[in-house]
Amino acid sequence: MSASRRGAITGAVLLALGLGLDDGALARSPAQHQRPQAAEKLAQKAQAPDPLQQGKQERVPFTAQETASAKPEDLPSSVRFAGDDPAAFQKVVGDARAAHDSWLVISGGGENGAFAAGILSGWSRAGNRPNFGVITGVSTGALIAPFAFVGPSADAALKQNYTEITAADVFEFGGTNAALTDTWPLKDRIDKSVTPDLLKAIAAEHAKGRRLLVATTQVETERPVVWDMGAIASLASGPEAQKYGDRPLKLFREIVLASTAVPGVFPPVMIDAVTEGGKRIQEMHDDGGSMAPYYLAPAATLAGAPDGGMKLPASTVYLVINNKLTPEFGLVPRTVLGVLSGTVSAAIKAQTQGALAITRAYAARTHLDLRVAEIDGRFDKVSPGPFDPKYMKALFEHGEALAKSGKAFPEAQIASPRGRSDNLKGADAVPMDDRTLAQR
């Protein structure tokens, strides 16, 4: 097995399920990232209890009924909803004036988030980047989404953060009983990148009727939670900003960190909440990609369940898959890491392919113009390891070039209500019928 393939497999455990490893999206450049000295780092760890030990020794027990009524401590319950609840989802998007505009959905994918960052840059340079009414993100997509929401002015930051960081700028091995790594470098970058000014800019866009949604997984309930990040940002800069203090900013940062917290690899994030009866609890949240590779709508909505059927207000959705979906051959070493990495890599591809099949069926059924960009055979480079700057730069430039030339999102042909096919602008027409879905 080649060194590059072996390195990629070794990194797969860390990059799988959208591994927050590429949370570089909100990172500062390595040159700006100053790690604490040993004594300072030990002090930081002493102040931040291990999530697992905290769970065993300090968490107040609570029931399913209590967590069902809980809301973030000292904040409105409206800043989040159950991601698998069609009615709650419909209310959030139904109240958004701009939800009829195009949507952007960004998947997980670790360092491969450079692909989405490049597409956004290429779109801006081509001068035809849509003003998305709704943007959603999970895992590395959660790191990109806030910058995508602000607009082209954040392209330079995305490029820097997806072409110049290394794994050392995100995590270090050891340090907690809850995970294989300690993500203090990532948390430090998020704290410095998610600023009051960023929240103010997001709140301004939210006020225009646009929505920024980020998904996490609540471990206790085994359900997705979708956070209205624009609503949270608005609390920090609105007329009641003094009432909420720094709590919206703190929660915003925690959500971004949680959405990238790959189970067992990165430690989970404990979010303070209060039940309807006033009981203060701590909810455990981790990687949004654990539930699905991306978030477009509740599963019941996409599957057409009787209680979840609805049509999205948007007529066009752009979906960026930060991953390669085609199988790749490589001899796998007979080690725990080798077997786990190879199997997880295959599982993530299968999960994403399944999600895409359901989404395409939904698009065909509701006459939705679904445009999908993925890392396909047009890009043949392999990363020698997690967060290799040369690989990420090449992938960024690939996505940028595709978007500039209009070839990032293939064209779709959607069956009209009258039974004929309507051709839509783009490259490489793909008829969306049952036979096409079966072939995909």
TrEMBL record:
<feature type="region of interest" description="Disordered">
    <location>
        <begin position="27"/>
        <end position="78"/>
    </location>
</feature>
<keyword id="KW-0443">Lipid metabolism</keyword>
<keyword id="KW-0442">Lipid degradation</keyword>
<feature type="active site" description="Nucleophile">
    <location>
        <position position="139"/>
    </location>
</feature>
<feature type="active site" description="Proton acceptor">
    <location>
        <position position="287"/>
    </location>
</feature>
<dbReference type="Pfam" id="PF01734">
    <property type="entry name" value="Patatin"/>
</dbReference>
<dbReference type="InterPro" id="IPR016035">
    <property type="entry name" value="Acyl_Trfase/lysoPLipase"/>
</dbReference>
<keyword id="KW-0378">Hydrolase</keyword>
<feature type="region of interest" description="Disordered">
    <location>
        <begin position="408"/>
        <end position="440"/>
    </location>
</feature>
<feature type="short sequence motif" description="GXGXXG">
    <location>
        <begin position="108"/>
        <end position="113"/>
    </location>
</feature>
<feature type="domain" description="PNPLA">
    <location>
        <begin position="104"/>
        <end position="300"/>
    </location>
</feature>
<feature type="short sequence motif" description="DGA/G">
    <location>
        <begin position="287"/>
        <end position="289"/>
    </location>
</feature>
<feature type="short sequence motif" description="GXSXG">
    <location>
        <begin position="137"/>
        <end position="141"/>
    </location>
</feature>
<protein>
    <recommendedName>
        <fullName>PNPLA domain-containing protein</fullName>
    </recommendedName>
</protein>
<feature type="compositionally biased region" description="Low complexity">
    <location>
        <begin position="37"/>
        <end position="48"/>
    </location>
</feature>
<dbReference type="InterPro" id="IPR002641">
    <property type="entry name" value="PNPLA_dom"/>
</dbReference>
